[in-house]
Amino acid sequence: MDKEVLIIDDDESISWVIQKALEPSGYKVVSHTKLASGLKAVKDTPKVILLDLILPDGDGLDGLREIKSFNPDAAVIMITAHGKMESTIEAMKEGAYDYIEKPFDIEELKIVVEKAFNDLSMREELKKLKETTGETGAPRIIGRSEKILKVFKEIGRVAAKDITVLITGESGTGKELVAKALHYNSKRSSGPFVAINSASLPKNLIEAELFGWEKGAFTDAKERRIGKVESASGGTLFLDEISELDLNLQAKLLRFLQDKEFSPLGSNKVIKADVRIIGATNKNLKDALSNGTFREDLYYRFNVVQIKLPLLRDRREDILPLAKHFLKEAQTKFETGQKELSREAKDFISKYDWPGNVRELENAVRSACILSSGTIIEKRDLHVEEGNSYSIKEFLEDKLKKYLKDMTKLETANLHTTVMSEVEKALVSIVLKETKGNQLKAAKTLGINRNTLRTKIKEYKVK
Predict the structure, then answer these.
(1) pLDDT at 153 over 50
(2) Span 309-333, pLDDT tens digits
(3) Which of 22, 43, 157, 212 is geometrically suited to a Cys-Cys bond with 27, CB 3.0 to 4.6 A?
(4) 295 half-sphere exposure, CB direction, 13 A CA radius
């Protein structure tokens, strides 16, 4: 590990003393007298940072929060001549490695710095061990654009606070990645991270998946099963597409959020579970409130803190770095050998709007890496036509994968009828919304006659 120390302190004499004390031990020391320039230097990933509490252009605690938001592994040692209990506690709560008051013993400082590097080295070794044994930790969210940095800062501010968070954004923007980042940067990081997608299950099965069931609770319940809530105890439950929950289940979820207790299906037994809930949706919940499909009290429970994810095309400077990251991952995973994007492919990737967001980009790059011949990936290898998103087949496969995995375990799932009716209902609803309720236009778009459309609207109770 490079032993680089960054000092952010407006007292140049202090920085000089620290530099002269650390350099003979092999440390590279860089110093800045202002918070703004120091924060820019942090982005070059120094591991240990000595940060003054009071600086001419900002507050050290604000600087600490920003550092931890985009470089959570950094060891930040706060140094100050204005030590107070409140600031010490606040600094440690915000993730400071240690807190030293001026005037300090230089030998004590050297010990703290050495300990910080030893701890960081142990963390890196542990991380490598987990990778070799197949264990996974916090995902890496790629990006340096202003909009994604804002998301990083929001993650940093709320990760350690054990509160409910709502993540919003279009499909494919990375909502589950953000939920994982919140989990792995929280005090619950050693606990389980459990995810459930409400849109991938029939509404009558979501409650059973969430809260589990007792033997005999329904026809196919041949043995007791623990639900996602109970299995996430001590950790985080990520509830994706919460707008798909029916009103009865919303009431039960609200009760759990308030009391941290629930009852499995077919049981009167009350079970407590210490779980942090993170919700996500690609829809506007305020619209769901207006049409009565989402409870107002549950909305305010979830909307304590909202993290809104930007569209990929709105953070265009992140597109090419993401593509290169996905290409490197694909090369390693599929053992394709070294490949690189041609200039034309890079230009196309940078300019294309990616309506399927990050997921579509990842799928396109991964497919190109596997299927392209030679070491250069050309534009034609990406199999993306401008103006089109990924195919209906790919979209449905992506949505149905998790659902089918669970449903095939049941003896009588009635898959064909359930899936076909749900897809048709969603299609009719979307087209009506896009045509602003114009049934004649909707029928033409769907390729059916108006009477058939009216029958479908009545059958599926589409509004």
Answers:
(1) yes
(2) 999 999 999 999 999 999 999 999 9
(3) 22
(4) 16
CA–CA gap between residue 431 and residue 439 (Å, rounded): 9
Structural domain includes residue 35: yes
Distance CA 398, CA 134 (A): 24
Strand residues in 91-155 grouped as ranges (E): 98-101
Work out the mean pLDDT of the chain and round it to a whole number: 86
CA–CA gap between residue 431 and residue 456 (Å, rounded): 12
Phi, psi at 163, each rounded to 5°: -125, 160
Quick check: helix, strand or coil at residue 387?
Answer: coil
pLDDT of residue 456: 87
The reply to whether 295 and 320 lie within a common domain is no
Q: Residue 217: phi, psi to the nearest 5?
A: -65, -30
Domain boundary pick from 358, 382, 406: 382
Strands (E), 71-137: 75-80, 98-101
Q: What is the CATH number of the domain that holds 445?
A: 1.10.10.60
Residue 180: the pLDDT is 94
**Dihedral angle sign, alpha carbons of residues 298, 302, 303, 308:** negative
Q: State if pTM tops 0.90.
A: no
Angle, vertex CA 57, rays to CA 51 and CA 61, nearest 5: 40
Residue 403 — very low, low, confident or very high, per pLDDT cuts 50/70/90? low
Q: Are residues 43 and 169 in the same domain?
A: no
Domain membership of residue 61 as a residue range: 4-132
Within a domain: 328: yes
